[in-house]
Write a structure and sequence with these properties.
Layout (H helix, E strand, L loop, with lengths): L2 H22 L3 H59 L1
Organism: Mucilaginibacter gracilis
InterPro entries: YtxH
Protein name: YtxH-like protein
Amino acid sequence: MNNQTKLVVGLLAGAAAIAAVGLLFSTDKGTEVREEITDYLADLVNSVKSKAQETADNLNSIKNDAVKNARSAIKSKINDAADIVGN
């Protein structure tokens, strides 16, 4: 990214930040906007928590399946080895 692009991106980001602050601190409309933003962020946080828990549960299930399969494979190899040694 060249310097001109960085400057334009910086100016646009600054303008967006100023506009957002202006909306938040304006009159009654600002109160409504703040409430909407708060509700949206609360919903977003709950959604992220839910997805994180779902992912953790899925990973735990995958881990348990992998451990179960590994134990089964090891027992099978031990039995095979015992059969070879016993013969």
